[in-house]
Amino acid sequence: MDDQLIRIPYAVTAGDEFQTLAARLDRIPSLILDLRRRLYSFRLRIGIGIGRVEGPIRAPVNRVSGTAFELARAAINQVKTSRKYPTLTVFRSGRADFDETANLIYGLHDTLLQQITGKQWETIAMYFLKKRVDRTATALSVDISTASRNLKRGYFWQLEDTSLIMSNIIRRTFL
Fold first, then answer.
1. What pLDDT, in 10s, does the model give residues 119-147?
2. For residue 86, cis peptide bond before it (omega within 30 degrees of 0)
3. Which of 30, 63, 81, 145 is most buried, most CB within 10 Å of its CB?
4. What is the mean pLDDT of residues 149-162?
5. Long-range contacts made by residues 54-58, C-beta under 8 angstroms, separation at least 24?
């Protein structure tokens, strides 16, 4: 995991659930994308709470409290009960305008995520390491055109843009 994304190590809190604190609010979208690429074989449900964190911030994270954690729990419950369309990511911040925008963007984002194949995720994961399509192709022993096509059909550029734009939205809203 990129040390620049999280503030304290993950803590497993209930068997298949884990928590952490983002290093900075505007890194949350990068953290989401990093989790998705690293754990692509799992159908991760992610609830993000943006709010106060109370008490000393130290491991384990499940001993830290505050509205951020309460909002994250409400967000994950919303993910679990969403019926309109398959939502995998929900934000709760107590700011309706932000939540509405972020949840719409990630609702569309999650629709794309569910279309990505294993091979496309492998290409995306390798691209994160190599930073160039030609190096990604070499590492995967495929043609450059195959690597490029896997990134395009795997919606990589949309996923990356979502992360960048949501970081900007978070900065404008909260920082």
1. 999 999 999 999 999 999 999 999 999 99
2. no
3. 30
4. 97
5. 57/7, 57/8, 57/21, 58/8
Residues comprising the chain, all counted: 175
Alpha carbon 45 to chain centroid distance?
Answer: 10
Q: Where are the domains of the chain?
A: 6-114
Return the pLDDT at 3.
54
| CA dist list (Å): 49 to 12, 41, 128, 156, 173 | 17, 24, 26, 25, 14
* Rounded Cα gap, residues 175 and 170, in angstroms: 7
pLDDT at residue 1 tops 70: no
Rg (CA), the chain: 17
Give SS3 for 89.
strand
For residue 63, pLDDT beyond 90: no
For residues 24 and 6, what is the distance between their CA atoms, to the nearest angstrom?
8
Helices in the chain by DSSP H: which ranges? 28-38, 67-81, 96-113, 118-130, 133-140, 144-153, 156-174
**Number of CB atoms found within 10 A of residue 87's CB:** 20
